[in-house]
Amino acid sequence: MRILIVDDDHFQRALLEMVVKKTGYEVVTAQDGAIAWKMMEEERFRMVITDWLMEGMDGIELIKRIRAADWPGYTYTLLITAREGRASIIDGLRSGADDYLAKPFDEDELLARIAIGERVLKLEDKLVEQAQRDALTGLFNRRALYDHVRREMHRSARNGLSLGLIMADIDHFKNINDTWGHISGDRVLVHLAGIMREATRAYDHIGRWGGEEFLILLPESDYEKTRIVAERIRSSVEVSPAVAINGQEVHLTVSLGFGSFVPGREVQEIEPMISAVDDALYQAKASGRNQACATRAREN
Prior knowledge:
Alpha-Beta Plaits, five-stranded parallel sheet, Rossmann fold, 2 domains
């Protein structure tokens, strides 16, 4: 975890840095609140340790700005000050600080309070992860996919990179449920999720779009790379049967629609991209299933 330390006193800042680094944390420092704020606009820090009284933007103002910012994830703040008394502690906490430490600080107490903050952030990470995942397959859910597509669109637009999308749907899934039962149907969904993980890169994003439909997001993927992944998924599913609850093999196929887009040049919104691959998926279904069809406006 990277911790930002903010203090206008050079000696105090160096002492804090030395103590925190000893425990293995990565430390970045700033000599006042204004500089710290500029740094935080460029890079997310999960934890900020800041002095209260500083020239220009003080620690209280910095914390207020952090709380008002619309950033993903929580920033844990620890306020350090020479001000004493219950009223000062209350003022600091009311400003948005999560914890408070008096100067001169005790090294063991500082590290204990940092550990508290780390436990809070780990709990948040766990809750966020659970909220983003489909309970059955462990893949991203629809809401999380939207967030990933939005972020990758912005990144692709900045860098002029292609973005690949694949929509996949299990063929005749209702017949699978009717024949083998819904528990076996769930096994089929989990089985397909595993195949898609194997067919994609570690930094690709795979999610359950709804029912038996899945969406795969491929950053920095042009038309040919996206086509290869779609075909890899299709062929792997065809030769890899799932196993029903009674132990029998369940043979299945998938239909896929795929496309590659250049956000900012070809598309500006999420919905047209998803609609395009969904239309291509419909075409794959209408053309006999067990195939991957490209969007009409494919990248050349």
